[in-house]
């Protein structure tokens, strides 16, 4: 479903990604863990073109988003194509990034109406269904500033789902939340996993990574150090750097 | 009281001229300023640079000079030379000048909308144009209300500069009566008129701010 090969990315003189390759199949729930600055968020952001890569190749559902020719020149698909390809992926941010001038319902129907061309009338019932699913239908007319962090993040998840993505990308979805609010967001993500949504979750929640994901990827220093089924990764990490990281957390 | 009624006519005529210049300038300079701001923040470097230069020119020279230039000197400029009557010349100068100031206010508002908003719009599939129209500009409006209130109030009073083209705005009408009748009463009345106009503006902007207060950033 997603194939990333040899992704390189630098910010100025800092090499943030040094040849990251990853293959995601339908129904995979992949947790990406690792210390701060390991490049995990950057890698996620490269997949949907929030960051442009310097070298490598990314295919989404058989379509090439970006490729690098023999001369080392990186070429992206034309803007309209790239946007269409990236629309197959929904994304949830650490800082929610809800649209503050829209109500909860408007946040959710904005893209279906503006991008897909649905009428408001057609967009509202599925949006309400999504709100019911994340348990926030009673907040449909509230503005984001009147919601708690956990509620904001659940609205953000509903907003991403409204575009009916095949893949969901989560960039540290609970890192900006108070500890007592992370549970409600994780429950929502867990529910998606049970519905076999394909997901990549960059997270610091190790218990969540262990319980929900089918595979865990440990990144450090801009590389994938280790990639294994969740249970194995936590029971017997093979690489010393993974062991050090997991021990440090425990 | 009779004297007051007698001078009211010319002063009201002057007010009409002042309001015309004010309203037409506002109606033209706001869209022009928005266009300039959008070019200024766009990724087209050359166009953005030209707009920067334009803003420098318009903010860097007196409005009165610009008005005199358009009225007296523009007819003799090759190619673009055109002779404008006094009212259009004044409107042209005010519009070109105020659009530059508005453009900078709009730019500040546009750039104050965080990167996260652009990213959220992008991952939902919105194009750059859709992101501007649906996400950034609506949020900009709330943020620029206080500086726009400032700038429009300044515009009301700046309209008095059109006296240099011998147009009878409120202030020039008042001054005419003062010089004729040797009384400062018309100045007091003119001041009251200006204060009333700014009061209406202040009130209007307060209403707008209240309307936008339904959400917080």
UniProtKB/TrEMBL annotation, chain A:
Transmembrane stretches, start-end: none
Compartments, as annotated in UniProt: Cell membrane
Major localization listed first in the record, in broad terms: membrane
Alphabetical list of InterPro entries matching this protein: AAA+_ATPase, ABC_ATPase_HisP-typ, ABC_transporter-like_ATP-bd, ABC_transporter-like_CS, MetN_ABC_transporter-like, P-loop_NTPase
Keywords associated with the record: Amino-acid transport, ATP-binding, Cell membrane, Membrane, Nucleotide-binding, Transport
Membrane topology according to the record: Peripheral membrane protein
GO molecular function annotations of the record: ABC-type amino acid transporter activity; ATP binding; ATP hydrolysis activity
Any one cellular-component term (Gene Ontology): plasma membrane
SMART domains for this protein: AAA (SM00382)
Gene3D superfamilies (alphabetical): P-loop containing nucleotide triphosphate hydrolases
Keyword Cell membrane set for record: yes
Location of the ABC transporter domain: 2-246
UniProt key word ATP-binding: yes
Similarity remark: Belongs to the ABC transporter superfamily.
Name recorded for this polypeptide: ATP-binding cassette domain-containing protein
Automatic annotation (TrEMBL), chain B:
Transmembrane annotation, as ranges: 20-42, 63-81, 87-106, 185-206
Statement: the UniProt record of this protein carries the keyword Nucleotide-binding: no
One GO term (biological process): amino acid transport
Main location (coarse class): membrane
Stretches assigned to the ABC transmembrane type-1 domain: 15-206
NCBIfam families tied to this protein: HEQRo_perm_3TM (TIGR01726)
Protein name: Glutamate/aspartate import permease protein GltK
Species whose genome carries this gene: Rhodocyclus tenuis
